[in-house]
Specification:
This protein is an alpha+beta fold and 153 residues long. The chain has 5 helices and 5 strands, in the order αββααααβββ. Helix content is 29%, strand content 12%. The strands form 2 sheets. Strands 3-4-5 form a 3-stranded mixed sheet, covered by helices on one side. Strands 1-2 form a two-stranded antiparallel sheet. The radius of gyration is 24 Å and the shape is elongated.
C-alpha cells in the first residue's frame, strides 16, 4: 500500500493530501477582505448584519473593535494578543478581528474565543453557549408513573 503511494507520487500523480486551502468568504480572498472599506464589506454580509451596519454600529461595538486592535498591536510578534473581555454577544465578527482573543460573557463566565477566518459573518454569541447541555441519566422519583413503584430503600 505504501509502495503504491510512493510510485504514484514519483509518476507525477498528486498525493491524497492537497495543498493548504486558502480561505475565501463568499468568493473574496482574506487579503482583499482586510483591504475593503465597510461599504464594500457590508455587501458581502447577510441581511441582518447589513441592516445593523446601515443603522450604524453603536459606541460600545466601536470601542470593542478599538480594544481588539490595541491588544493585537501591543502583542509581541508571534504571540497571541491579550484576551479582551466583553458582554457584547451581538457583535458581528469582522475580518479585522481575525487573530484576536475575545472573552464572551455567557451569563456566568467569560468563554474564551479565538477569532479565526471561518468565523467572519457570524456573531460572537454563536461561540459562547449560554446553557449547559442536558446529560440524560437515570430517571429520578416522579419522572414517570412507573417510578412510583421503585422502592426508596
Amino acid at each position: 500500500m505504501a509502495d503504491e503511494h510512493i510510485e504514484d507520487v514519483e509518476a507525477g500523480g498528486k498525493s491524497k493530501r492537497g495543498p493548504f486551502r486558502k480561505f475565501t468568504y463568499r468568493g473574496v480572498d482574506l487579503d482583499q477582505l482586510l483591504d475593503m472599506d465597510y461599504d464594500q464589506l457590508v455587501t458581502l454580509f447577510p441581511s441582518r448584519i447589513r441592516r445593523r451596519f446601515s443603522r450604524g454600529l453603536k459606541r460600545k461595538h466601536l470601542a470593542l473593535l478599538a480594544r481588539l486592535n490595541k491588544s493585537k498591536r501591543e502583542a509581541a510578534p508571534g504571540e497571541k494578543p491579550a484576551v479582551v473581555r466583553t458582554h457584547l454577544r451581538d457583535m458581528p465578527i469582522l475580518p479585522e478581528m481575525i487573530g484576536s482573543q475575545v472573552g464572551v460573557y455567557n451569563g456566568k463566565t467569560f468563554t474564551g474565543v479565538e477569532v479565526k477566518p471561518e468565523m467572519v459573518g457570524y456573531y460572537l454569541a454563536e461561540f459562547s453557549i449560554t446553557y449547559k447541555p442536558v446529560k440524560h441519566g437515570r430517571p429520578g422519583i416522579g419522572a414517570t408513573h412507573s417510578s412510583r413503584f421503585i422502592p426508596l430503600k
